[in-house]
């Protein structure tokens, strides 16, 4: 079976008005089906750029990106992945149910099937009775759950998430982390997850990809020996092994060839 | 759970409640009463011959000829149009004329909205079209209507296709649409360009093409921009229709009555004001109808922010 994601020898150079910005150099990364991989690193190290390359929202300057054995471009056309960003990005004039239904409607699914699938998804993300609410009537955490449900609508086997919990308070965030692990396990989807937070990366991931800036590259890949992600629960956060993994990621971040402590990374 | 706590709170109201609407109506009424009071106050206390500075009269005469009493103007509405046998009561004559003008203005509004939307869609679709068309669209509004109206009428009178024959009211509608399309084109373009990158990229990940993106994202996002544009277009269509009636000499509409009764003002000063009130009421009705349209699409005026 082919990898969920295969990134080989990728460079990304942006031509901006002020000159060229090397966002990524020599990036290679494999993500296995069902695997949870986090990208962590200081601001500007190219995490979002790498995610956007996988999503075919940018194209690489050099190298190749494959998703489930096809080009990233073809994978986007076939909608092999679902995506969520830091902002939920819900359409304000659509109800929760209608927002989740949008990708299904666009692909021409019959109305009754859409209805059934939306009900399934609402239950999956625990939104119970809120299908008829509008986004402005929901808290940030609930909006983000709608965004996750929408990303899962077409049963993709790959989820791409760019700091989806970055704007939420700590309580909601920890709650949604556990929810996300449950959902990922239930759907069997692989996840590529961008984050600023070391504990978040450790708690969620099979492997943590530590990146460093100027130019953006992968400094180290740290495997998390914390058991399968689907079986993790909140008590793990107080476990000794959890702190060991946090230390391992922190050391990888600091030893990544950057003299100064990386900015923009939460060490708590 | 923090989520549950915020959910128990009632959804925020984004639209004026009953109380606020009542208050707005009261303020409106108060404004009219104030205007009438100022009118009468000046008429009572102002200089009889007005005030002339150099050759320019800066304050009007207070005579009954120049400024009839408010109650005379109102009373006149309930008298017959002329002394002739079987003449209609004045207010009915005004309402009938206003009805005709409203119909023509509505036709002009519809045409203007269609043309304006078409321009906006074209300019959104092709950046080149925007830079080529937008300056001309702005320039189009600087053409003086008075000069333009008779031209439209004479072009129109040459059109005859089979059973179809150009009617004079169509010239008036065309001119009304000429004023109405402008705010729609500009407002709709701004609205169609308003979605942020996040939403556009999302639709891109669903491999949605131009038309689905238009239908599901750009058009709904344009609604809050479109509503004030449509209201402005309605007011413009009424002004355009009244002015065009005057300058093409179309019979039966409110514009014609304004001119006709102004000619009789020396003998019947209160009468001349009746069609002017009619024209004002017309503008209010036109703009108000569009506001009702806004109620139908109120879900499209929601914002994204979290509660
Ligand atoms: N569209 C773009 N045009 C020019 N430069 C960009 C663009 N997108 C990202 N960059 C640059 O690429 C680098 C990596 O950005 P990004 O991937 O957003 O970093 P991160 O998500 O890790 O904070 C930054 O220096 C950023 O300024
Ligand atoms: Mg980023």
Give an account of the 3D structure.
With 268 residues, chain A is of the alpha/beta class. Chain A has two domains: 5-81 and 156-267, 3-Layer(aba) Sandwich (Rossmann fold); 90-155, no CATH class. In chain A, 34% of the residues lie in helices and 25% in strands. Chain A contains eight helices and ten strands. Chain A has helices spanning 47-54, 72-77, 96-106, 111-124, 140-151, 170-187, 198-204, 240-254; strands spanning 5-16, 19-31, 36-40, 62-67, 70-71, 81-84, 158-162, 190-195, 207-212, 217-223. A six-stranded mixed sheet of chain A has the order 6-7-8-3-9-10, sandwiched between helices. In chain A, α3 (96-106) packs across α4, α3 (96-106) packs parallel to α5 (140-151) and α7 packs across α8 (240-254). The longest helix of chain A is centred in the middle third of the chain and has 18 residues, at 170-187. Chain B is mainly α. Helix content of chain B is 70%, strand content 4%. In chain B, strands 1-2 form a two-stranded antiparallel sheet. The radius of gyration of chain B is 25 Å and the shape is globular. Mean pLDDT of chain B is 85; it is low at 1-14. The chains are: A alpha/beta (268), B mainly alpha (307). Chains A and B meet through α3, α5 and α6 of A and α1, α8 and α9 of B. Magnesium ion is lined by residues 47-48 of chain A.
Given this structure, which CATH class of the largest domain in chain A is correct?
A: Alpha Beta
Strand runs of chain B, count: 4
Oligomer: heterodimer
Number of helices of chain A: 8
**Beta-strand fraction estimate of chain A:** 15-25%
The topology string of helices and strands of chain A comes to: EEEHEEHEHHHEHEHEEH
Give the domain tally of chain A.
2
Shape of chain B: globular
Helix content of chain B: over 70%
- Rounded to an integer in angstroms, the radius of gyration calculated over CA atoms of chain A is 18 Å
**Tell me about the biggest sheet of chain A?**
6 strands, mixed
Proportion of β residues of chain B? under 5%
Strand order of the largest sheet of chain B: 1-2
The topology string of helices and strands of chain B comes to HHEEHHHHEEHHHHH
The CATH homologous superfamily of the largest domain in chain A is named: P-loop containing nucleotide triphosphate hydrolases
- The CATH homologous superfamily of the domain at 91-304 in chain B: MetI-like
